[in-house]
Amino acid sequence: MSLTVEHDTERDCLTLHLQERFDFSVHRAFHDACLGSKQARSYVIDLEGVTAMDSAALGMLLLLRENAGGDNADIRIVNAGPELRNTLRVAGFEKLFTVH
User: Fold this and answer.
1) In terms of pTM, does the model score above 0.90?
2) Quick one: which of 19, 66, 70, 77 has the most CB atoms within 10 Å?
3) Residue 37 confidence (pLDDT) above 80
């Protein structure tokens, strides 16, 4: 489990860089970073180093979306490999998030 967080205070954008597996093992860190006391205006979820993700990861993304404003949330998922993009597509997440 590896999660690093960058906060661009000028743009109020929180970037989460995940590594290896995006699963329940990062739940606490993900929750603390995204759903802590102060919400950011926008979020970037960088999956460049992720090799696998499970339903817990999808649930965390949905919870973030809900807490960030639902349909008005500004959340971008970037650097997803072909397998992860396919998982996101099959789950219908390309309709809920901006996926690059």
Assistant:
1) yes
2) 77
3) no
